[in-house]
């Protein structure tokens, strides 16, 4: 228990128009930390709220010096809010929670226990969800399966906002766009140990969800960004090269067959769509290979190390 009492936890809580939930969330976090013996700081990141959320946070900060706020001039999105919170957090562990009271602070010790067992990032899994089935549950299941296959880290719930990070994980992340959905995947690709625990999920007592259908399209596009920039950023030819070689070889084979067909069998080349396909494949193949080579040349100019060091002796 002495080790836990010395541990400081930073809570990064992005929010948009959640004034009715903030007092209850603060009380839940404070009570759980006091009970468990954790020192804490709470970083509310107000993402352009237009209700009384900021006034509530000011009052909480007046009563408790461990409550802090970063207030955006307008709504920039959850990823930017998390990025700002990660840079401001000073705790040994960094928790992220949604401000809508669907995440239960009583789960905090379970996350810390998983960290103590060797994890670098622990993601919550809402095994039983209290969300609309058609608009959130089913699309989320599809999203989680696709993301697991693409990233190589098997999680049931990438979208759960309830997570715990070691500070070295958050300091290595740059969050933008919709990348907050892929933080476990990014951390896994960087070499951090990612695990998952089941958490209790509550129905939203106040307000309404800010979820929109367009976020799934944006999320899929950002998944492509994550996979490409993490796996092929330093070796773009490994991505473009195989496709370019495949297209070039197919184009050469097609044109070689058409040449033999004309010289041996006397068939003409006019009105042969296959000839157009062969030439097009050769051009596309050369372009893809050239694109990969240009990417390699650009990367050679970047000498910044990309590896992550766990420890030194």
What labels would you give this structure?
313 residues, alpha/beta, elongated, disordered N terminus
Can you describe this structure?
- The longest helix has 30 residues, at 236-265.
- It is elongated and about 90 Å long.
- It is built from eleven helices and seven strands.
- With 313 residues, the chain is α/β, with parallel strands linked by helices.
- A seven-stranded mixed sheet has the order 3-2-1-4-6-5-7, sandwiched between helices.
Entry summary:
The chain has eleven helices and seven strands.
Topology record:
Layout: H1 2-5, E1 8-15, H2 19-36, E2 39-46, H3 53-63, E3 67-71, H4 78-88, E4 93-96, H5 108-116, E5 121-126, H6 133-151, E6 163-166, H7 167-171, H8 183-190, E7 194-199, H9 214-231, H10 236-265, H11 273-300
Parallel strand pairs: 1-2, 1-4, 2-3, 5-7
Antiparallel strand pairs: 4-6, 5-6
Helix pairs in contact: 2-3, 6-9, 10-11
């Amino acid at each position: 228990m002495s080790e836990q009492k010395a541990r400081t936890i930073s809570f990064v809580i992005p929010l948009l128009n959640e004034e009715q939930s903030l007092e209850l969330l603060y009380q839940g976090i404070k009570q759980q930390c006091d009970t468990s013996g954790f020192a804490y700081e709470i970083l509310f990141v107000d993402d352009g709220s237009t209700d009384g959320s900021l006034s509530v946070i000011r009052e909480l900060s007046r009563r408790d010096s461990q409550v802090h706020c970063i207030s955006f001039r307008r709504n920039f999105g959850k990823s930017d809010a998390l990025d700002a919170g990660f840079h401001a957090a000073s705790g040994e562990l960094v928790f992220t929670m949604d401000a809508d009271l669907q995440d239960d602070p009583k789960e905090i010790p379970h996350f810390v226990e998983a960290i103590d067992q060797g994890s670098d990032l622990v993601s919550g899994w809402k095994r039983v969800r209290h969300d609309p089935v058609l608009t959130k549950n089913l699309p989320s299941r599809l999203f989680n399966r696709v993301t697991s296959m693409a990233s190589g880290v098997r999680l049931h719930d990438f979208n759960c906002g309830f997570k715990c990070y070691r500070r070295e994980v958050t300091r290595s992340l740059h969050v933008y766009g919709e990348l907050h959905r892929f933080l476990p995947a990014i951390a896994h690709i960087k070499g951090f140990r990612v695990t998952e625990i089941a958490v209790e999920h509550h129905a939203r007592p106040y307000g309404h969800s800010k979820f929109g259908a367009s976020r799934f399209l944006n999320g899929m596009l950002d998944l492509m960004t994550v996979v490409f920039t993490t796996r092929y950023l330093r070796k773009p030819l490994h991505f473009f090269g195989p496709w370019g070689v495949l297209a070039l070889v197919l184009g050469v084979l097609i044109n070689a067959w058409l040449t033999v067909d004309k010289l041996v069998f006397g068939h003409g080349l006019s009105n042969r769509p296959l000839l157009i396909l062969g030439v097009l494949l050769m051009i596309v193949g050369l372009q893809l290979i050239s694109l990969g080579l240009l990417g390699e040349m650009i990367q050679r100019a970047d000498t910044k190390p990309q590896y992550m060091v766990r420890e030194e002796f």
